[in-house]
Amino acid sequence: MPIPTESVGSLPRPAKLQAAYADYDAGKITKEEFEKAQDEACKDSIERMEATGQWCVTDGENRASSFATYPITDTLMGTGLAETLAPDGQYFAIFDDGHHRQLPRLVKGPFRYKTYAADYYNKSKKYATKPLKQAVIAPSMLYLLYPLEGEIEGYSKEAFVQDLVDECEKDIRKCFEAGAPRVSIDFTEGRLACKNDPRNPWTGAKMLQIFIDLNNKVLDRFTAEERKNIGIHTCPGGDCDSVHSKDVDYNELLPSMFQMNAGYFLIQLSTESDKTRIYKLLGEHSRADANVVPQVCFIGVTNPLNPRVETPEEVRDALLEAAKYIPVERLGSTDDCGFSPFSIDVKPQHEGPDAARLIAFKKIEARIKGTELASAALGV
After folding, report:
1. What pLDDT digit, counting tens, does each position of 127-152 carry?
2. Based on the number of CB atoms within 10 Å of its own CB, is 187 exposed (0-12), middle (13-18) or buried (19 or more)?
3. 339, 322 contact by CB (below 8 A)
4. Helix (H) and strand (E) counts for the chain?
5. Tens-place pLDDT, residues 39-93
6. Strands 91-94 and 331-335, bridge-based pairing
7. pTM for this entry
8. Which one, of 255, 265, 235, 217, lies nearest residue 340 by Cα?
9. Are 228 and 293 spatial neighbours (Cβ–Cβ below 8 Å)?
10. By the 8 A CB rule, do 246 and 278 touch?
């Protein structure tokens, strides 16, 4: 069987769509006009990704406020924020270039999704002629909506966790029911949980194992056959062409990450200084039997933060090196991260989002061609 290759999910929103987000927040356009701009972007995303040869495509998450906040708000500025939330929550991340992303704060229960990923999926699938996958947010990220210290009056953290697990399970099941062959769970907070950034208190609260156990509460509600098609994505962030936790050694994350009983992992790797060491770690810690399911390691072979397009030969060589340490039947390729996890992203290293969008499709095409070369070289 050839080496599988899969996208993470997001694509840069066209400048026209980003302007529509701003106009919608400002009350200058109607919701119908806003959704029309989203439709146009999603249709274009699907058509262009299908043209790359990707077997399983996405709509670029071009309807989502962000990879993390789609269940609770329509825009990053808070238009349509769920009524149980206030906008002044803790930072999710402080990036290396100095900018930050802030989460809302839960103020009362019960916790419920306002929008499920399948709601967006169902609007986009009519544009696809190939299978359409879906990315969802991990419960561990949404766990950060609850205050780090203290308790919400009348709504304990234990009650919140139960509601959170129920909602995350529902989010995934709805995607499968809508027709998604693959559902990947975004887990960028995993590496960040090891950073201990004094500016961002939750990163120093030793929450990694809490995150792992919480995510397993959701995964363990699915059968082995279902979990083969549920993935976990890890990266050190990828917003405005900057990162938040690349300085954290992967050895602090990977042994714990593979405790999660998912069937595959989409792993940022192309920009690591010692890739061979990470390949060895993946081979050592990924499991051939994670509650019956073998864990497939999709290694990152393209860098969404850099406009240089990798060559197919570079992709091939990365996979051939990885195959020395990871069983080839459990090896795949991916991009390091989604190309724009947040709806507003000017892509400063790319001369803007429209240019970044074109580059993204070139990188995806190079990944696919390089993976085919590696499969041929390995005789699979």
Report:
1. 999 999 999 999 999 999 999 999 99
2. buried
3. no
4. 12, 10
5. 999 999 999 999 999 999 999 999 999 999 999 999 999 999 999 999 999 999 9
6. unpaired
7. 0.97
8. 235
9. yes
10. no
